[in-house]
Amino acid sequence: MQIPISKVVLGEAEKQAVLRVLDSGTLTQGEEVAAFEREFANLHQAAHGVAVNNGTSALIAALLAHDIGRDDEVIVPSFSFFATASSVLAVGGVPVFADIEPDTFCLSPEAAERAITPLTKAIMPVHLFGQMADMPAFADICARHGLALIEDAAQAHGATLDGRYAGSWGTATFSLYASKNIMAGEGGMVLTNDADTAERLRVIRNQGMARQYVHERLGYNLRMTEIAAAIGRVQLAGLNAGNAQRRANADFFNAHLRGVTTPVERTGSASCWHQYTLMLPAHVDRDTLVRALNDSGIGAKVYYPIPLHRQPVFGSVQPSLPHTETAAAHVVSLPVHPHLTTEERAYIVETVNRLAGA
Ligand SMILES: Cc1ncc(COP(=O)(O)O)c(C=O)c1O
User: Fold this and answer.
1) pLDDT along the chain (358 residues), means of 10
2) Interior CA angle at 194 toward 177 and 171, to 5°?
3) Which of 156, 176, 149, 168 shows the shortest CA–CA distance to 55?
4) In the chain, where does the domain assigned CATH 3.40.640.10 lie?
5) Is 239-355 assigned to CATH 3.90.1150.10?
6) Residue ranges lining ligand 1, Cβ < 6 Å
7) How far, in Å, is the centroid of ligand 1 from the Cα of 353?
8) Which residue among 76, 106, 155 is best mutated to probe the pocket of ligand 1, counting the most ligand atoms within 8 A of its Cβ?
């Protein structure tokens, strides 16, 4: 058996959508992109969607739209993908790393608030592995301190907290990379309920132009192609069904795995189960376990083995973040994608229970 950590399945509908674009003769930023923006925003109950070429661009555009630039501090979790913090560097800002909640792996509101200085301009929680960060707490902190709230929702398509999607608390950015719950080859989306922010985002993704050849602010070419949007639209139509299947897989793992700490779902939230990430007990040697799982055909992976505050690019003077370091040392992600068969699910449980010593 070979069970990959994620699986891209493209069908006849995606093929027909791409052919429709090729026949149209318009390959970038046209009707498909406009329709994808509307449909993506509608599904997430956001007022505005602005499509871009990937999730990293979405973060950079969101930071620029909130006028974050040279020496401005943005509080981010260290337990995340590189782009969460590299996007802050890209606009000339300073990523300030704060610790996570030990059970959900999301940025801790208390730790983030303690990290605020007079230079802080924004807080950027990450909805890690599909689990929503504590957004009511972050909204409150940002309102009290006059800070922008940017949600890195790269992994959180369709996830909710108190019935609300990413994009309803702050400016939310999504990735449409191949491994995500839905994909467009490459792609990104920014959601906001604020019309002015949406307008700034549209200008930023198109070379800073509000009118042709009048560049009113710094912008780049961050545009999405029509081909990507056409694929994304088909994928979006399958998002809720895919997330329901991911949940069924996660429920099965939660019920049957032994001897490991299974993922915690925040009260009132519905994770979209982008990853199923468990914690191993300290006595289990993770590298040996992951190798054994891989040798058994299970594409287990570690997201993320080296936290961002320990990455050389961010400099050597960094705080100690105990919960982040513990998570980075002991987590393992198992395949939870919607294409798992019931046999594969059972085989994963049986193999993990045997190898992790339950
Ligand atoms: C948390 C997080 N932020 C940002 C990104 C960047 O998205 P992209 O790879 O589409 O640039 C990713 C992608 O893996 C991610 O997981």
Assistant:
1) 95 97 94 98 98 98 98 98 98 98 98 98 98 98 98 98 95 97 97 98 97 95 98 98 98 97 97 98 96 98 97 90 98 98 98 88
2) 35
3) 176
4) 12-98+106-237
5) yes
6) 54-56, 80-81, 83-84, 126, 152, 154-155, 175, 177, 188
7) 31
8) 155
